[in-house]
Amino acid sequence: MATAPPWCRVLIVGPEGTQLACFVLEGKGAPDVSAVDALAQLALFARRLGGDVVVAEVSVALSGLLELAGLGLEMQRQPELGEESLGLQKGQEERHLGDPAL
Asked: How confident is the model at residue 86 (pLDDT cuts 50, 70, 90)?
């Protein structure tokens, strides 16, 4: 049985930039509005605590849903290793020929 590709990698960062949690967001099939809702709630919670939610390796489907939901990704800082902060920041991840698609 094949495993579903991950939708994105999520990093929750505290006010001092310390990593509080890191996990992969995935599910069966393509992401849906519940994935967008979960990420938006995480971002809101982290920001209320003075932190941030950073997403990396965002799938094309999830990126499209974030745009459609009005949570477009805007440039605000230089990302580390192609990471983008949920709903507000976006970075370009460097891809090489032969890299697996997400």
From this structure: low
